[in-house]
Design a protein that fits this description.
11% strand, 255 residues, alpha/beta, 45% helix, binds adenosine-5'-triphosphate, six-stranded mixed sheet
């Protein structure tokens, strides 16, 4: 059996209760890339199944891109830990090559297409939730990328509804990336590397904005080790009437 740290299991249980992520009778499809995040997610859900006072089922699904990925070890991992697993083979790589050039849009194309396959698989097989392995560092990176490069204040919610009614959930959203890395290392679980997009396994560089944002956050945290605590609190303390957007300023009174 794997050792899940108390910190991770507590955080996942708390997040689950606070946001109503998984409930009695849910059927949850788990996006399993084989990276440290989704691998931890599988084991966190396995643990939740053992300790939660409600029953739910889940299955891991790996989407391949038609890039000759070697993923037998993912199937082996799931078999070893008695986790149901399915591989959905696609030709995303070929379609991407035809549609876009080798630049940063490659990564968002991959992720949109992959999400599409996961939504369809969930819908076709009667799953009502899709769980993804995003964590707090992902949410903060996404916030800063949108803030600094895309002109939007947006991040990654713990739960949202996709167009087809499927609920997408992020049980690890309050875990730090380093906790997930430590989980994989201490259990000697082999995982796929941390590339921000599958194309990077080949000859495509990490998108400029993402790379810059990651570095920026690292530097900021070195100077202010409490930074993530404050940022997490800020995400729960959104004062919309202090910005420039007109619809939030109607009848705006401030002390
Ligand atoms: N090929 C895939 N098949 C199924 N689900 C995937 C796949 N790739 C990513 N996902 C899901 O989407 C989430 C976010 O993907 P992303 O590539 O941004 O994360 P990541 O940091 O590489 O995570 P991980 O460490 O789990 O690979 C993953 O945690 C996982 O749940």
């Amino acid at each position: 059996m794997v050792e899940l740290s108390k910190k991770i299991s507590k955080l996942v249980g708390k997040t689950n209760a606070e946001y109503g992520l998984i409930k009695e009778g849910d059927k949850v499809l788990v996006g399993f890339s084989g990276g440290k995040d989704s691998t931890t997610l599988l084991h966190a859900l396995k643990h939740l199944q053992r300790v939660a006072p409600f029953k739910f089922e889940f299955k891991a699904v790996t989407v391949t891109y038609g890039m000759g990925e070697q993923i037998q070890f993912l199937a082996d991992h799931c078999k070893k830990y008695e986790i149901e697993h399915e591989i959905v083979d696609t030709e995303i790589f070929e379609i991407a090559g035809e549609k876009i050039r080798k630049n940063s849009s490659f990564c968002s194309f991959f992720s949109r297409m992959r999400r599409g396959y996961l939504y369809t698989t969930a819908q076709e097989q009667g799953y009502n939730k899709l769980a993804l392995g995003h964590h707090l560092d992902d949410a903060m990176e996404s916030f800063f990328m949108n803030f600094l490069y895309n002109g939007a204040l947006r991040s990654m919610p713990p739960i949202y509804q996709a167009e087809n009614g499927l609920e997408v959930i992020r049980p690890l959203i309050f875990c730090r990336e380093r906790q997930l890395r430590a989980f994989a290392q201490s259990n000697e679980i082999s995982v796929i590397g941390d590339e921000a997009c599958p194309a990077m396994r080949f000859d495509i560089k990490m998108p400029h904005a993402r790379e810059k944002t990651k570095k920026l956050l690292e530097q900021m945290e070195e100077e202010n080790p409490q930074m993530f605590i404050s940022m997490k609190a800020a995400f729960n303390n959104i004062q919309t009437s202090t910005f420039f957007q007109k619809e939030f300023l109607d009848n705006n009174k401030q002390d």
